[in-house]
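Before the break, one more example. Copy the sequence into your notebook; we will annotate it together after we see the structure.
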Amino acid sequence: MKKLGLLLLPILAITLMLGGNAFAQNVGDNSVYFVTYYSNANTSGAPDGTLRIINDGDQATTAPEGVENGGLYAAIYVFDDSQEMRSCCACYISSDGLLSESVNKELTSNDFTARGELQRGVIKVISSSSSNPETPVPTPGLRGWMTHIQATTNNFPATSGGPGTSKGPWFVTETPLADSNLTQLEYTNLGTVCSFGLESIGSGYGWCPCTPEDYDF
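Here is what the structure looks like once it is written out:
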């Protein structure tokens, strides 16, 4: 019996060690700020890109029948390729919920200038407990992915204006949103520019519509 006990001790120690390491490797982080890009938006013949964000339930404390809590907002800021913010919004995502935002139909459809010619740029997201993108409250719990529209370049016959090119065929790739560092300066800039755009420049433009959670593209 003593020999059996001595034999079990190292086995138990190894099991605890492996279990502890496995658990540690699966511990998430408290990221609240994410960045990505969009490309070939609003381009003839190209498919639409989609931003998808989930609420991982990190803020939920209880979920009795019909009283779900732990909801968060994705504070979204859309830039063009000249580093100018063109729209912003805050979309609600319930605990364990999924938000899907169309690049063409929502994120770039109602920019501050109402010009609507956005084709490429940057998207920034703050995981927030505030419904106001002008004053987000960074709160962990959101994770996201983005589909990217990639194109090859094909030559077509030269014209009187000289040789030209056309885009195609189109490829769709998907990547996680990249974790980034939300500095105080970046936080202030995002909220201030969003506020200025919505209230001064936009005059009714600039708020990107939010898709209902039960709808996907």
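The helical segments are 2-25, 103-107, 184-201. Residues 108 and 118 are 6 Å apart (CA to CA). Try to locate both features in your own notes.
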